[in-house]
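Quick one:
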Amino acid sequence: MFKDSNTFSSFSVNDLKAAKKFYSEVLGLEVSDNPMGVMELHIKGGGNIMVYPKPDHQPATFTVLNILVPNLELAVDALIVKGMTFEQYHNEHLDTDKKGIMRGEGHGPDIAWFKDPAGNILSLIEESK
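Output:
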């Protein structure tokens, strides 16, 4: 029904100015303002993600943005230098190391999770080699 429709994803933040600085300066993504008072993240491949302010914002409890990287270890180290802290998970489904990296070890990709200034969960995923 909608296979030929343009689509985009969106999520909320509590502080659009802080989000814009984080996504453009810390993550290095292309960001632009939208006339509707929202921000757009321009993603490789031509996709856009709308980020909108919400005064009663509640951080997502799931990953809202996954970023594929060629070398997860280097990407995590680069963000740690910029002050990022990676999430620590230790349960039956997820077990991260001291850096916050879950090693797929043949059962999936290596992944590391972190939060944006609004508390939304993002991830870095190592691309398949």
